[in-house]
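We both want to read discrete structure tokens more fluently, so let's practise on a single case. Would you write everything just below, so we can both look at the same thing?
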Amino acid sequence: MSYETRIERARELAGRYSFAREILTFYQQVAAFQQKVYEYLAAFPLDHNLNIELVLPWFPQFLASVRLTGPQALSQSADELARQNPSQWSILLTSYWSGSSLSPHDTFFARAFLQPYAEQLASTSPRQGSRLCPVCGRKPVAGVLREKDLGAKRSLVCSLCATEWHFDRLACPSCGETSAEAISVYTSDPFDNVRVNTCQTCKTYIKTVDLTKNALAVPMVDEIASIPLDLWAQEQGYKKLEMNLLGF
């Protein structure tokens, strides 16, 4: 889905769900910045080795945007990062790119900032399915159901580069469990196009956006908007397979 499509969907859902309005409004600002970087990077050849010199000059602008539009905690973190020097920014971004574990706030800044780079890289990469992204090796952030023949096929969406790849509809994307007794699907109003897929074996869950019920849904955005489903799943003792861009 294009950045324009994501922004428009976030705007629509922000008007529909008051409980998600703040985070969806913030997401629009993040996506608008990401779109600029994505379009800028289109002019350069990229590979899996992060070209930090190419993107680092954009980082102060990203921090300024989060300072102005982000939730208080993220705004304060952006202010702290802005006072650091570029070499420290470089360490943060390259650490995330290499798969190092970071604090939740540092993860947000690195992931949101580098997502356009990863998406440009993914646009020219081959794709084959597994439980991890076939392009960048990250976990999926959501599932997608699309019409196929007389039923629906399932794909997973990467949490970083937004690559979508086919995955067995009846299998757990965390542990691979396929037993019908262990795999469950839950839905709830007003999110009739978002399903919670749970696995009793590894006690994880992932949300799947059903495009057969609403073809205008945007998986990455509808996943963010359906916060009550996360709260319900976590109350039942399940852990989310991968947090979304905003850390929910």
